[in-house]
Each structure stands twice: as C-alpha cells, then as structure tokens.
Write a structure and sequence with these properties.
This protein is an alpha+beta fold. It folds into three domains: 73 residues; 130 residues, no CATH class; 31 residues, no CATH class. The protein contains five helices and twelve strands. Strand 11 and strand 12 form a beta hairpin.
C-alpha cells in the first residue's frame, strides 16, 4: 500500500507544536508524543509514511489552522545517494577539485554540480560503556560471588559542520565533515569547529557556486550556531529541495 508525506510549501513556513498535536488527532499513525520530534525536525518534510486517507485528513486539519502543505507519494520523494567521503576541497575557475583521505583526486565541473548543502548540525553518536558488578549467584551447592560485565548503550550529541556536493554524474554525492575527530581542508587551509572565521569564509564561497534555490538553507547563513537539530532534519531539507527541483509531468 502506498504511503504519503506532507511537505511545507516553503522553508520559511513554521508550524507550532500545539497545532501539530491538535491536527494529528485525525491521523492514528501519528502519536501525539511524536509531534515534538516532527516540529523539531521541520525542515521541509512535515511527516511521512502515512496512509492516503490519514494524509488527506491531516493535511486538511493543518490547512484549517492556517498551514497549507503539499501531499506527495513517498515513492516520489527523492532518495539521497550514498556519500563518498572527501577531505580536501579546492575551488577552481570552472571546476572543483576534491581529494579523499587516500590522496585520490577527482575534478568535477561546475556545470555538473546540481546542489550544494551544508551547515552546522547536531548528530547522535552511539556510545557503549562497560561496567562490572559483583553479583551473588546460586548453584546446587549454595551461593557464590561472581563478577558480571554489563553493557550500557547511550547516545551523546555531537556538533558537526557538514558539506554535501551533489552531481549529475557519478559519484553523485561527495561529503565532507568537520567535527572533533575530523578536519577538512578548504583552499589548502584546515577547517576545525573552533575556526569560525574560516568556516564562515568557506560558507560564503560555497554558497556562490549555485543559484539560491540550489544551495541548502544552512549554508546561506552568516553565523556558526547550530542550525539543524539532527542529521535527519539536514537530509530531509535536501530531499525537499530535490523534490521541488524535479520537473513535473
């Protein structure tokens, strides 16, 4: 059975949490508790994976509250390519030179560049911790002490500056990441999270590569505060842009 998504008509459109919660009553697939996450990650795609009738009803309720949306079949939403990781970026007159961690280079023309996304985001990193406790075990002979190893999985929030370049030809997606564990070289200079001036300079240079509708909102900024609350919100905005760029009919 086909499922559907509701999309914002503009990235400037805001939908408050209370309105989402009230409208979600007509969509059993959307729990009221889910609305906090939907509102947090509102970067183009409001909600996905809804049956047709639920999507239509949810859309009508949001419109009644002043929030028009577009309804799109999930199989019509673009799926992002797997990323090829790069570490060095150099801008040439009519091309881009990328280098990976193995020193392999590839030159791509600006005409081949479909979209460039980037920005500051927070992603979750899984962390597994081990701890040992002394426990009392039982056997037919009686009780005895034994050291037992336990594992506890937690998620920590990690700040990151991410860049994605999308091309018509393969490799279709090249990705660079600046975090506490990784550095990217831009125009021969290392970029680190603390290098705010250099990061802003890189953002200004990169947003000039394509027209505004082909540049992610997080890259069209003049500050280094966290823009995307999650990796999901970052990638859903890209998918929203791609849907709007796809010719209809």
């Amino acid at each position: 059975m086909s499922t559907y998504s509701l999309l914002q008509v503009s990235l400037d459109q805001t939908i408050d949490r209370e309105s989402l919660e009230e409208a979600s009553v007509v969509a059993p697939s959307v729990a009221r508790a889910d609305c906090a996450h939907l509102q947090r990650d509102l970067f183009g795609i409001v909600v996905s994976n809804l049956p047709f009738e639920e999507a239509k009803a949810f859309q009508a309720e949001l419109k009644r509250r002043g929030f028009p949306t577009d309804m799109v079949a999930d199989d019509e939403l673009p799926v992002l390519h797997e990323a090829f990781t790069i570490q060095r970026i150099e801008l040439k007159r009519e091309s881009l030179l990328f280098t990976d961690t193995m020193g392999r280079e590839q030159t791509r023309t600006l005409d081949d560049l479909v979209f460039v996304a980037g920005g500051f985001l927070t992603r979750e990193k899984m962390k597994v911790e081990k701890f040992v406790s002394l426990e009392t075990k039982r056997s037919p002979e009686g009780t005895y002490p034994e050291f037992v190893t336990h594992r506890e999985t937690t998620f920590e929030k990690v700040p990151e500056f991410r860049l994605d370049f999308f091309f018509w030809s393969a490799s279709n997606r090249l990705r660079a990441s600046v975090s506490a564990e990784s550095t990217v070289f831009f125009q021969g200079r290392p970029l680190r999270l603390r290098d705010t001036a250099l990061l802003l300079g890189a953002m200004m240079d990169l947003q000039e590569l394509r027209p505004a509708e082909r540049v992610g909102a997080g890259l069209r900024r003049s500050d280094t505060t966290t823009f995307y609350p999650s990796l999901r919100s970052y990638e859903e905005e890209i998918r929203w842009h791609f849907h709007r760029l796809t010719p209809r009919g």
